[in-house]
Amino acid sequence: MRRHELTNPAAAHTDGASHDHAVCIDALLDRAKHSFGEKGLKLTALRLRVLEEIAASHDAVGAYDVLERLAARSGGKVAPISVYRAIEALREAGVVHRLESRNAFFACHAPHLGRHGHMALVCDKCAEVVEVEAPDFHASLQRAGRDRGFAVTSAIAEGFGVCEVCRAEATKPAHEEQS
Amino acid sequence: MRRHELTNPAAAHTDGASHDHAVCIDALLDRAKHSFGEKGLKLTALRLRVLEEIAASHDAVGAYDVLERLAARSGGKVAPISVYRAIEALREAGVVHRLESRNAFFACHAPHLGRHGHMALVCDKCAEVVEVEAPDFHASLQRAGRDRGFAVTSAIAEGFGVCEVCRAEATKPAHEEQS
DNA sequence: GGGCCGATGATATGATATAACACTTGAGCC
DNA sequence: GGCTCAAGTGTTATATCATATCATCGGCCC
Question: Which among B19, B25, B51, B21 has a CA at the least distance from the CA of B36?
């Protein structure tokens, strides 16, 4: 088993259950095309395939998971470095982020209008990642840094806990979990 | 070169230059003894050696850096897993933290009285890590999460920028940098 | 002194990420 | 068309980070 197995099929409730994920993906692809164009980058076939695998769920996935899924889907084999390079481009375009605490990557479904100040919330049960805006976070970090003479230029924040769906499931009797 | 070479000898200004680091270490060791005792853990010889290596600077160091330094200092070889186990114990005791964005570890010189709400500021130039209190951070994260039905139980925050000393050096003419 | 348990040793392997160099391809230019 | 250039990708090898598993050792309790 992968060291950080973030995709827990038994607990997965993301895909198809609680929302129409096709909408998420469509919006994301649109934004990706736009963003790549803006930055003078190209949304190539490989990059698109990688993005589709990452965006297939709201979970954070490892680069080697992406690799396996690409292979499973298309048969042709891709080298790790190719996946990493594609991810790097997707990150530059702002459509994929890295979950630092897990060495994994997730699709960004909510463009950060305010540049900084977003946080990732990771569900310990189902591995889903949601991003929340936290406009005061960056300011507060900058203030805290300034007191120490430290000029903060960028920051990350990751929170861990239990998401809404998993909390609801946890309070249900066990025999209803399949309903 | 290490992928994440966090200790930059050329830029290092931590050791001996800007403060009496022996004081930091003494305080830290005191706190470690106390904390291990409180938690029913043992501050064994190996754990102490690992702590000393990590605490030797204010930089974040990789587990394998610690490994090499232990070997260089004592000659005897230690297995990676032993270092990781020691680090894990030190983290439980609260005297060492993990810098998630760098897969590295640093000594905690400022006990977190308020449980959560600390952030690590990492200097991009010299790799030094300083921790700052940010009492509002955890609360704000919890608030943001609650709006989404997400119950946040723990969090990390890491900021990046340039520390006071490096900023001062950057504004000095080059020929004065050795002064 | 025998059993238990936490810590460490020893060995092997898994998981994550990048280096270095070659090849392809398409855009811009003449 | 043919040229050049740069971005992207392929190929191979390797660096770096982390854990699984089982054996052993040494204190502690009774």
Answer: B51
Strand D nucleotides in reach of protein CB atoms, 7 A cut-off: 7-13, 15-21
SS3 at position A55: helix
For strand D, which residues in window 97-156 of chain B come within 7 Å by CB? Answer: 103-104
CB proximity B154 to A under 8 Å: yes
Q: Quick one: average pLDDT of A102-126?
A: 85
Tell me, what's the pLDDT at A53? 97
| Closest to B95 in 3D by CA, of B110, B81, B84, B80 | B110
Residue B177's CB is within 10 A of a number of other CB atoms, namely 11
Report pLDDT digits (tens) over A52-72: 999 999 999 999 999 999 999
Q: Which domains does chain A have, with CATH numbers?
A: 21-176 (1.10.10.10)
Tokens for B19, please give them: 């403060």
Using one digit for the tens of pLDDT, what is the confidence trace for B56-95?
A: 999 999 999 999 999 999 888 899 999 999 999 999 999 9
Whether A75 sits with its Cβ under 7 A from any strand D atom: the answer reads: no
pLDDT tier at B141 (50, 70, 90 boundaries)? confident
Work out the pLDDT band at A176, boundaries 50, 70, 90: low
In whole angstroms, give the CA distance from residue A86 to residue A36: 12
Footprint on protein of nucleic strand C, Cβ below 7 A: A 1-4, 62-65, 79-81, 84, 103-104; B 3, 41-42, 44-47, 77-82, 85-86, 89
Could you give the angle at the alpha carbon of A75 between the alpha carbons of A24 and A128, nearest 5°?
30
